[in-house]
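Example 3.
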Amino acid sequence: MIFTTKAEYGVRLLVELGRQDGARPVSLKAIAEAEGLPLAYLERIVALLKKAGLVESTRGAHGGYRLTRPPSEIHMDEAVIALEGAVAPMSCFVDDSQDGRVLCSHVADDGHLCATKLLWTRVQGGVHRALAQTTLSELVAFSTSAQTPIEPQRPTLQGAA
Amino acid sequence: MIFTTKAEYGVRLLVELGRQDGARPVSLKAIAEAEGLPLAYLERIVALLKKAGLVESTRGAHGGYRLTRPPSEIHMDEAVIALEGAVAPMSCFVDDSQDGRVLCSHVADDGHLCATKLLWTRVQGGVHRALAQTTLSELVAFSTSAQTPIEPQRPTLQGAA
DNA sequence: GGCTTCTCCGACCTCCGTAGTAGGATTAGG
DNA sequence: CCTAATCCTACTACGGAGGTCGGAGAAGCC
């Protein structure tokens, strides 16, 4: 169960942008060198972020990329979904949660539902919650060696088991 | 971000075993036919569950597999870890959480930490929590068309955002 | 004892997505 | 007009997912 490097590189790219003040655009080349990532590949990744409206670009000399919003308003669920596509733990997992019914593609041969659907739904909820609770500004602060706590800011009931 | 079919098939296998009373072992062939899964592939998957001590086997005629514990005592984190290996959202993600330090393989070229580590740690926590809160007995109940709520039994503070 | 029915085990295969490259077209400063 | 940058499409290599095959042990049953 892993994300791909698209998510990894894309998030690092966003952090790199978030570290800047945003006055001037930052070129991909600078980011690629700072993070040690392949430039040509980053181009494809940043295109996903642009399509999602998270960054904007300026072409030509002294051009580059800039965040469209302050880092504190960028939640990572948006970013990761833009980079990875829908976050679903299983391929048969279409998001039909809005109508309350839980169905699967291989529905019910002999009268019983696909048991894993319940599990994957909960997992997806957990992932989505973790992503949504994390903002880009937190990652920026964390990366600049500040001691951001791993646990998100919201108090949780359960003792971590 | 998906699990593989190992997790899918393995969980369905466990549910199929949990649906039985556990008095007699169930053959893989019966499970494969009931779930419509390839028998030869299931063999490899159930071996993972056996190695993890979740099922036990009886060889020979009328043999098969059986749960080693009642379904209510089988939490899905154990099962999924047995099936998928460690649940880490990124390949560079080694679990060094016990010593509190958060480090990554590509540590810090120019003085700042790997920003994504914070994010993946939270995601992993969310996944792990969702898995640990779900027991096999819940999945069994769910699959037999009972209306198990998607949200786990624990009351949660946050409104689902 | 010899079937049959199972678990077990390792080697093998195929396909597809990930990760990355190559090469260019377009846009904008200086 | 040259250079620095984004943009865009096609191409490639590699590894793992997903599955198959053939056979070797184990245990019940006649």
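Residues 25, 27-29, 43-44, 46-47, 57-65 of chain B lie near DNA strand C (CB under 10 Å from a C1'). Residues 95-103, 105-111, 155-161 of chain B have pLDDT under 50 and may be disordered.
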